[in-house]
Recover the amino acids of this structure.
């Protein structure tokens, strides 16, 4: 079964690598990084490079699509090669999924109109422009429509584990989870703006220029 993770400039690394680490643990899945052209793509801070191994033209019909997000996703709100590829590929996928603001690309492809969906909390307003209803859930499934969206960054790991349960069974999903030792015990309960104080919000604004 072919899994395609499209890469684009200024993506968030964990959006792609989190699901990759889960899905590639199952021998029946062949995970490939795809893009407009072969070669290195730099992530949003420019520090890390990921490699596109096959172009969109070389892999037009994957079984599973996992679209990562990141600052670079905003470049495709009005369309582009990745949007065209996602729209065309979705016609034959078993599931088309997104992590973080990858859902904006699904939205631009017309796949979320009339559906509930999730994304990074900082992009709910943009997601709504595409006819989706943003919801604050870790993973949102529309299995009958073959669409699954995940919230910000780290939620892609949760989404991929859930996807294995749907594609195979709960045992496969738990085996992958155990292998990567995904057993989180975060030192702080600060994973969403609703859980933190103004000092944390201001510090985040200093770091990222994002205002909550």
């Amino acid at each position: 079964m072919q899994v395609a993770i499209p890469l684009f400039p200024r993506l968030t690394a964990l959006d792609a690598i989190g699901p990759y680490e889960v899905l590639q643990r199952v021998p029946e899945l062949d995970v490939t990084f795809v893009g407009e052209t072969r070669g290195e793509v730099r992530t949003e801070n420019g520090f890390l490079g990921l490699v596109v191994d096959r172009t969109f033209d070389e892999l037009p019909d994957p079984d599973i699509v996992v679209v990562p997000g990141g600052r670079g996703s905003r470049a495709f709100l009005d369309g582009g090669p990745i949007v065209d590829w996602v729209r065309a590929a979705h016609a034959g996928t078993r599931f088309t999924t997104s992590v973080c603001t990858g859902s904006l690309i699904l939205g631009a492809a017309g796949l979320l109109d009339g559906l509930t969906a999730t994304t990074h909390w900082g992009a709910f307003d943009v997601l709504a422009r595409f006819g989706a209803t943003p919801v604050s859930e870790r993973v949102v499934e529309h299995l009958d429509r073959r669409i699954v969206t995940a919230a910000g960054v780290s939620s892609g790991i949760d989404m991929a584990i859930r996807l294995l349960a749907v594609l195979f069974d709960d045992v496969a999903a738990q085996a992958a989870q155990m292998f990567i030792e995904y057993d989180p015990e975060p030192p702080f309960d600060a994973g969403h703006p609703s859980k933190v104080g103004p000092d944390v919000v201001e510090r985040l604004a200093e770091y990222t220029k994002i205002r909550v």
Notes: The chain has a mean pLDDT of 96. The CA atoms of residues 139 and 150 lie 4 Å apart.
